[in-house]
Amino acid sequence: MEESICRNLPPILSSFVDTFVDFSVCGFFLPEPPKNPNSISNSTPDSSQNCINPPPSSPPPLQTKYPSPDRLIAIGDLHGDLQKSKEALRLAGLIDGSDRWIGGTATVVQVGDVLDRGGDELKILYFLEKLKREASRTGGTVITMHGNHEIMNVEGDFRFVTRSGLDEFAIWADWFCVGNKMKGLCQGLAKPKDPFKGLTSKFDCVEDQELFPGIRARIAALRPDGPIASRFLSQNLTVLVIGDSVFVHGGLLAKHVDYGLERINEEIRDWINGLKGRWSPSYARGRNSVVWLRKFSNEVEKNCDCSALEHVLATIPGAKRMIMGHTIQSFGINGVCNNRAIRIDVGMSKGCGDGLPEVLEINGNSELRVLTSNPLFQNGYKAPRQATQKEGLGLLLPQHGPKQVEVKA
């Protein structure tokens, strides 16, 4: 009798357990999964995936290029600070006071570096997933990207992890294992995969043994084919083109475009899903990689390689600008190289600069505006199109103090 019931209920039971674990970790119920905004297929995963012997399926190709939306919002590095992340989203009118999506048909791009330097990394991943699902119901799109810190963590490089970040993953691991035990009670479900399989029971190099559970949990969650890596990171894009804007965390060189933007996205996805070994592809490692490059990010414009940027943009049909995070702009979002390079990392996380949230808005006609929470620019009137440079930094400042700062397209 019990076996018969279990044969009929595996998907429901598994879904219930997953919902229970999610709520225990993030504190809210995720809406029903939408069509995937980062893939061309947009097919909902079959609920039978948790049953014994699920049918094989190949992942759909990731969508690398999108047409221009009526409203496009770009958000920089978040680094484990959920409060500042929500402030940035509210600044753009994307969520209400109850943290629900109100952005309508807007498209949002978060350019990576959710991980490290803070203690709300998982909470942000869950929150962005919630917004993806909510936005899809009103025709909106939320696209998440890889930063160098996502790549580092999948490789097991935890140099910038905080104690609170380790604690958060230890809590996740406890609930995840509880969920696996619940699933294991029903013979109709496939045996849950042990996320700790193959991991050592101790690390001699870790002096503070209180950190050990968090380190072990973080490795299990984020290594290639780990539960968090596969669920939240594998569908991230590494490079993205929306209309006439190219998005990348660090920067693109001509060799990256020649290699193939779609190819880069799919190879990184396959690596995170455990199909390409332990280490990321070479174009995601090193100072000239797509997630580490700083050739176009120096605050002093003369130190930016504008000629290389022009060459790269010329190889991408219709591209007018490259939008990047990665390098903190202490004076806020700005552009150099005739606004062909827009830098949007303002170091808003408390763990990495504690700057005031700012986001970039691009309207359908390619009008660029900076939406800022800086009180110096909150007099409530529209900025003039004229901009001045201050101290040779290439910082685009209005001549008066508005809340919305325009950047010439």
TrEMBL record:
Gene3D superfamilies, sorted: 3.60.21.10
Domain Calcineurin-like phosphoesterase, residue spans: 71-327
Polar residues: compositionally biased ranges: 37-52
A single MF term (Gene Ontology): hydrolase activity
Annotated stretches, region: Disordered: 37-66
InterPro entries attached to this UniProt entry: Calcineurin-like_PHP, Metallo-depent_PP-like, MPP_Shelphs
Pfam families: Metallophos (PF00149)
Regions of compositional bias (Pro residues) in chain numbering: 53-62
PANTHER family in alphabetical order: SHEWANELLA-LIKE PROTEIN PHOSPHATASE 2 (PTHR47680:SF2)
Name of this chain's protein: Calcineurin-like phosphoesterase domain-containing protein
Organism expressing this protein natively: Liquidambar formosana (Formosan gum)
